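Narrative of accomplishments. A recurring question from our advisory board has been how the design workflow behaves on a single, concrete structure rather than in aggregate. To address it, we present the structure tokens for one chain from the evaluation set, followed by the sequence designed for it. No filtering or post-editing was applied between the two.
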């Protein structure tokens, strides 16, 4: 079981922080993001900040790099000479909103890397041998740039018996889709997350992905990212020019679930529509997953649990700005039997923290993409951990 903790200061093995350095690196879309290097007696431990294509209303607020770098000399003074275990207590005292969730998160991750000597999964949960299935984005659209209104067409290799096999299945599906769209000269390249973009509408994209996924023994899912297509009370689908009311959206999603045997549906309604999330959860036998509606926030999740809205939650540490806040939300989700899906961001880096987090928390799914170094870095880390753990096994996804 995961160690019960609210903040990292409760961990016992620690050293003094000798130095902190901040720098800028490029993320998946060649934009600059921040990287922290924390020096202790045990070495130098780094962490870099991911971000999404849009910052949801309920996410912890980030600050621009320029502001963070300008303020960093003063912030740095509050950590030098302090112990690693006290980093999050100091962050909470200053206030995440004051230093920015992007800076608070990388400080938090660097601290736990230092505490664990880069073996976070083992540090948080010594007994864990359960591994997540990688959920991979094959065709993309929406805010991630592409042709479709639905943001992601996803595959989940549920028959895989090892992490390596699961990764190989997803890569094979991705390659087969690429061959198909290139032969028909409808490819538009790859988007932010390494998914294909092509001249196919939402339904035809589902037709293609589901057909190829079935050949590889995988199941299909979608991330509607409904917030992005919701305007003035209706959901706008650009390919068909449909304008659906919330009730019509519900029936449309139910039809997609039935037609394509969808195992996973993320953000089918906008971020404040707990009512229709709840109705869909009652009527559909699949994972109904909230991202924007919960934003990894414990209070939002508790509201969803009370209303029985969804049965799964996307876990993005940058949405709350610290490791301990993330762990707290995961603990609440597990107690309510919500599936936890640890997730990357579209503007991610090669940092592998979420792979350790997924294993440590025994999350059944990790959403980290298929193609591109920012995605494969997490997958390689999963394989590394698999090779270190005694009697590793894949998670069970029971709905």
């Amino acid at each position: 079981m995961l160690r019960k903790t609210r903040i990292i200061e409760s961990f016992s093995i620690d050293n003094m922080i000798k130095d902190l350095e901040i720098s800028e690196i490029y993320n998946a879309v060649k934009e600059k993001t921040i990287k922290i290097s924390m020096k202790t007696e045990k070495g130098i431990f780094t962490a870099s900040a991911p971000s999404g294509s849009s910052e949801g209303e309920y996410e912890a607020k980030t600050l621009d790099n320029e502001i963070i770098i300008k303020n960093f000399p003063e912030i740095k003074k509050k950590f030098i000479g302090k112990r690693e275990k006290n980093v999050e207590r100091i962050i909470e005292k200053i206030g995440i909103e004051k230093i920015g969730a992007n800076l608070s998160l990388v400080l938090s991750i660097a601290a736990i890397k230092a505490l664990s000597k880069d073996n976070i999964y083992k540090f948080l949960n010594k007994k864990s041998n359960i591994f997540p299935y990688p959920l991979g984005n094959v065709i993309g659209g929406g805010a991630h740039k592409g042709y479709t209104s639905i943001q992601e067409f996803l595959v989940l290799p549920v028959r895989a018996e090892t992490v390596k096999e699961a990764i190989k299945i997803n890569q094979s599906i991705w390659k087969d889709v690429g061959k198909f769209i290139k032969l028909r000269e409808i490819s538009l390249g790859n988007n932010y997350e390494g998914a294909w973009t092509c001249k196919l509408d939402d339904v035809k994209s589902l037709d293609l992905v589901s057909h190829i996924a079935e050949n590889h023994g995988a199941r299909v899912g979608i991330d509607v990212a409904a917030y992005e297509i919701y305007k003035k009370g209706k959901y706008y689908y650009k390919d068909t020019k449909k304008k659906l009311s919330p009730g019509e959206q519900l029936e449309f999603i139910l039809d997609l679930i039935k037609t394509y045997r969808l195992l996973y549906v993320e953000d089918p309604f906008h971020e404040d529509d707990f009512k229709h999330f709840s109705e869909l959860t009652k009527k559909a036998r699949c994972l109904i997953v909230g991202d924007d509606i919960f934003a990894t926030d414990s209070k939002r999740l508790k509201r969803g649990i009370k209303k029985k809205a969804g049965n799964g939650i996307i876990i993005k540490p940058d949405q709350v700005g610290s490791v301990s806040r993330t762990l707290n939300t995961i603990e609440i989700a597990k107690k309510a039997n919500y599936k936890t899906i640890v997730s990357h961001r579209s503007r991610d880096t090669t940092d592998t923290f979420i792979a350790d987090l997924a294993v440590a928390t025994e999350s059944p799914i990790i959403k980290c993409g298929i193609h591109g170094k920012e995605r494969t870095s997490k997958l390689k880390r999963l394989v590394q951990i698999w090779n270190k753990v005694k009697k590793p096994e894949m998670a069970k996804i029971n709905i």
